[in-house]
Amino acid sequence: MGEVHDGWSPEQGYAAWSDAQLVDAVGASDRGALHELFARHEPWLATRLSRRCADRALVDTAVQDTFLAVWRKPQGWRGEGDVAAWLWGIAVRSLLHQLRPRANVLERLRNLRSSPATSAEEEVLARVEHSDVGVAFARLSPDLQAVVQATVLDGLTTREAAALLGIPSGTVKSRMSRARTELREALL
């Protein structure tokens, strides 16, 4: 961790540091590095989470919990992949944790579907809507589309997708299997 601080000067600040260097510095209890990570990533995390949950208080709590988790366990990032992807994983799991005690997650998801804001994944899907993949995806039932979005696009585990969708883990697995089969057949 000592190399993180090499070349640092007060004039330069943390802005020149990579995300990986900042996480290493957080591991050395550097609050300034955590602040810089927060400044870089909080805006897009809050935006993406708000597309999953209309309750701004839950989104804010999930974002705060994300950076608290980074502070408490920066070694959770193993130096592989993008720090932003690691942060997104923490954030979406934190949001799920916020949603769990709430009644009827499916009703909240239905309300989100009627909101005008679209997720980044939905925007990508809209771009490929008329491609073979987009047409095949559109032909899936809403139940299968929800499972594909949760597991493939959001990167949730089967258990997390089950909690988000309010269905058993086995149902997530069977729906994902059915979706794969239907997509494969449509793309042949």
UniProtKB/TrEMBL annotation:
CDD domains: Sigma70_r4. The keyword Transcription applies. This is RNA polymerase sigma factor. It comes from Nocardioides pini. Residues 37-102 form the RNA polymerase sigma-70 region domain. Belongs to the sigma-70 factor family. ECF subfamily. PANTHER family: RNA POLYMERASE ECF-TYPE SIGMA FACTO (PTHR43133), RNA POLYMERASE SIGMA-70 FACTOR ECF SUBFAMILY (PTHR43133:SF46). Pfam families: Sigma70_r2, Sigma70_r4_2. Keywords: Sigma factor, Transcription, Transcription regulation. Residues 136-183 form the RNA polymerase sigma factor 70 region 4 type domain. The lineage of its organism: Bacteria, Bacillati, Actinomycetota, Actinomycetes, Propionibacteriales. Coiled coil: none annotated.
